[in-house]
Amino acid sequence: MAHIDMDAFFASVEQASNPYLKGKAIIVTGKGLRHSVVTTASYEAKRKGVRSGMPAHEALKLCPEAIPVEADGKKYEYVSREIMKLLHSISPEILVTSIDEAYIDLAHFENLKEALRQLKGLKLRLIKEFGLTASIGIAANPILAKIGSDFRKPDGFVVICRGAEKEFLKQVDVKDIPGIGPHTLIKLSSYGYEKAIEFIEADDFFLYSNFGNALLGLKKALLACSFSRAEFFKNSPPKSIGHSMTLSRNIEDGELLKRVACFLGAKVIYRMRRKGFEAEGVSLFLKYSDFSAVRTSRKLNFPLSNVQRMNQVLYWLIEELWNKEPIRALGVSCNRLKPFNTLSEQLSFLGARRDLMDTSLKIEEAFGKYSLFPASILVVSEL
Ligand SMILES: [Mg+2]
């Protein structure tokens, strides 16, 4: 199993496509520098302490010579697609997890040596054909491979051989293990766990009783030599994700109907994003008190991935569908699902606004399902 992660992807694409920017500190930002955040900084700027997610004006204080470049989503998506094609040329199974990251199955290679030769060739082709460097981690399981790709950035090539996992984990910090949320991290460090190896050697019962099953599972997954390839690479999205509700009394009030629809819509968005998808279609279903039912579906010309947008769409659909008769039940579903693209989200929120859904899901990770949820749920609890 290999994990590949492009180095400072957006910034590197800009540098590769404009010779003037090569070797210079650049920051890729949204529109309008003043309220924008850094989506990616080139390594020249990172060396001065500039990080992704930092407000652009702060980045320019740290690194005044940095050249701001406005993000060009179409260009990055194009390069990403071409890179993924290249990955497909060396392995029949790849799992694309973001615009610049993917897992590559190496099971079909005759031996490790041949796999490594192909992966080194891949790195050379990325430089030759795109002018881009990537970091690659190779290990027996996906989590270790991902840690490996992050370990010697940029231009890294880290092989963690069978039997050498523990030796490797001595050098890795607990904070660099993917899947450990900020809340858990603080708790782990309060118990004195700093290095991944200490986490691995922690007592199972201690982990289970203090952190629960998920963290114990992560420990086992880190050391796993085998995992279900078919399960892992199966990336076909479900056809649709939906929620419906039969009401304890009929609703005639349009405002209340919208709130209930938005509540269901928010649940759908949460479930869809937990699974890593966004939607390009929405359906609304209404059942009247005489048990007749109507449904409408809309194909959207933008990717739907957050609650605010969902609310807008549901308002349109209700206006279009509802004949003002009392409602007995309703349902909302998302269809035309595809893997969530952080890029389209970043670009649709040009400026300093962060992805609220992302934050909500991170809070969920630490505090449990629906820890942060729209206040309209309060109305629904009365029904
Ligand atoms: Mg990257």
TrEMBL record:
It comes from the Bacteria. InterPro entries: DNA/RNA_pol_sf, DNA_pol_Y-fam_lit_finger_sf, DNA_pol_Y-fam_little_finger, DNA_polymerase-Y, DNApol_IV, Rev_trsase/Diguanyl_cyclase, UmuC. GO terms for biological process: DNA repair; error-prone translesion synthesis; SOS response. Residues 1-181 form the UmuC domain. One of its GO terms (cellular component) is cytosol. Pfam families: IMS, IMS_C. GO terms for molecular function: damaged DNA binding; DNA-directed DNA polymerase activity. Gene3D superfamilies: 3.30.70.270, 3.40.1170.60, 5' to 3' exonuclease, C-terminal subdomain, DNA polymerase, Y-family, little finger domain. PANTHER family: DNA POLYMERASE KAPPA, DNA REPAIR POLYMERASE UMUC / TRANSFERASE FAMILY MEMBER. Belongs to the DNA polymerase type-Y family. This is DNA polymerase. It comes from Kosmotoga arenicorallina S304.
